[in-house]
Amino acid sequence: MTPILFVYAKGGPPLEYAIPRIAAHAEVHVLALAPLPEVTAPTWRPSCASVTEEAPREGDALVELICEHAELVGAGAVTTLSEYAVVAVAHACRRLGLAGAGGNVEAARDKRLMRHRWHQAGVPVPGFQPVREAADIDAAFDRLRPPLLLKAAWSAGSTAHVRVEDRTQAERAWQLGRDVMAASATEGYAELHSARDGVSDFLLEEIVTGRADAWFGTDSKHAWGDYVSVEGIVADGVYHPLCLTGRMPTIPPFTERAGIAPVALPQAAQRRIEEVSRAAVDALNLDTCATHTEIKLGADGEMWVIETAARFGGVMTTRQVEAVYGLDMLGMLVRQLLGEPVRYPEWMLTEGTSEGPGAAGSLVVLAADPEGRPWRDLPPWNFAAVDWHELLGEGTRIELVREAALPDGTPMPAYTEAGGANAMAALCFLTADSEQTLLADCEHVIAALPRALADAAARAGEDEAFPGQGTTDRTDRTDRTDRTDDAEADV
């Protein structure tokens, strides 16, 4: 098999899922720029030919580090699944003469450049203003319609996103956002190629009004989110949209709670979304990479492109797609990077296969109620002690993603709007008979989990509530307790 260098950094699908799929098509050599998830090492390490851990570097030094390791192992391809490493890996691939995202990769990473390219190409995007100094805030409120959303230009997972109504509030939010990004950087959740830009660069953006009911209808008792993602691959400059994934409604400001596949939209609506995603990705002029394109759905069929990433969707998106649509996107990308033949669907898939579950989803566990209000008390997180049979419908299966979960007994981190997904206590993967069933089950889990965790604590003899522990920092997700025997519940 041809060697491939896999550059590991924070974020992306868990290694226990990703590494075996890459190893099915190449000899995997890991260059780790962040602490590896040893809790699942028995699952992924046997699939690796070598594993090397290095302290992250910045700019050309990081690119050179990647090139050195690629040459050392004779890599025929270099790839990553982390948002924070895509730029460095793309530049390394160009130096090595290997297939990669190409010289325009920053346009799929820096939200300011991304929107500028789309605006030039006529792709529908919300109005925006880059923020580098206080005068830019004044300019934003002079020409954009408030309320506005302050975003870190290089962030992921809704980190450092704050809704603002006026200039004064925006200035405070800008300082808060920089503090949040700096704190995230210390935990490895920041751009690696240009660390300084990752902390300091922001933009203000108009908040467009989504109308999920205009797309999904009003008959359903369960609410879909007002945006979807198009998962795809660019192969030698040609974009191949593969399928849609949907969402539950976000919580303030725009933090995701769950991703779901398939999406309960008519085929005609999915085809319209497919064409908008094609225009957005084509405008970025990428070479060869995965893509994850988020599109906001408005009234009267209106759409706005929110962002495109030159990597697969995070959390368990790749596994959702494989389970529902039968597409091993990781294997497809590896073969493409190695110059091997890949069969792409002629059109984006709009229905799941009959062989898989009806639906699959990723549920982010946050200490916030369905409206986004933080929990008053913060009991310990304890997956194994929750009675999942009481929370889920018949036939629904839930599994803990151990690489993205706090150890049982850790107090739930407090949810704050600016922190976004930084407050995640755990990630769970679910399958169900249909997307509507899965949506209903996720809604019930979110509403019932505070009581379920409190009851579990009481059963364990922890009778007190847990006020005052909301300032607990997120534990490094490499320090997980292995709970293999308790990691699934079939309901």
Automatic annotation (TrEMBL):
Sequence segments annotated as region (Disordered): 458-491
Keywords: ATP-binding, Ligase, Nucleotide-binding
Biased composition (Basic and acidic residues): 473-491
Family matches, as Gene3D superfamilies: 3.40.50.20, ATP-grasp fold, B domain
InterPro entries in alphabetical order: ATP-dep_AA_Ligase, ATP-grasp
UniProt-listed PROSITE patterns: ATP_GRASP
Domain ATP-grasp, first and last residues per copy: 115-338
The keyword Ligase belongs to this UniProt entry's keyword annotation: yes
Protein name: ATP-grasp domain-containing protein
Gene source species: Streptomyces hazeniae
